[in-house]
Give the backbone structure.
Amino acid sequence: MADTKDLENTILVELKDGTVTIELLPDVAPKHCERMKELARSGAYDNVAFHRVIDGFMAQTGDVANGNMEKDFNIRAAGTGGSSLPDLPAEFSGVPHDRGTLGAARSQNPDSANSQFFINFADNHFLNRQYTVYGRVTSGMELVDGITRGEPAPAPDRMISVKVAADA
């Protein structure tokens, strides 16, 4: 059994075919990890679409303002918003954007990450030190690989629920 600290920094993402387990990296990007836990605990990530999924690259989700498929969902707006919380400062590190890592999505402004994130399908080292890495998939990557592709997909997949393992 993992200790409490591990459970506090483990995210469980329920997809249509099962659960993806993500290990957060608070020693690398503490502000991003805290934000993900805060949004997960508030239920903000539940039912949020994967609005940008590029084969061989990444699956992006986390637009809590415009991506909730249960609340006035408009696929054209998904990906344009964040949360009501302030944007986060970049926490770039030497952790590479390897397959299965979690990266913070942002605009051209390095300090504009908020709620959106992506999971890398492949080693995307051209992103290194340009986007904050703050977690990695430890189980369920085959489920991530099965997310419907598209920018946006005509019938996008969603995160059914997102929880901090310590609360599950």
Remarks:
- The mean pLDDT is 95.
- The chain has three helices and ten strands.
- The two ends are 14 Å apart (CA to CA).
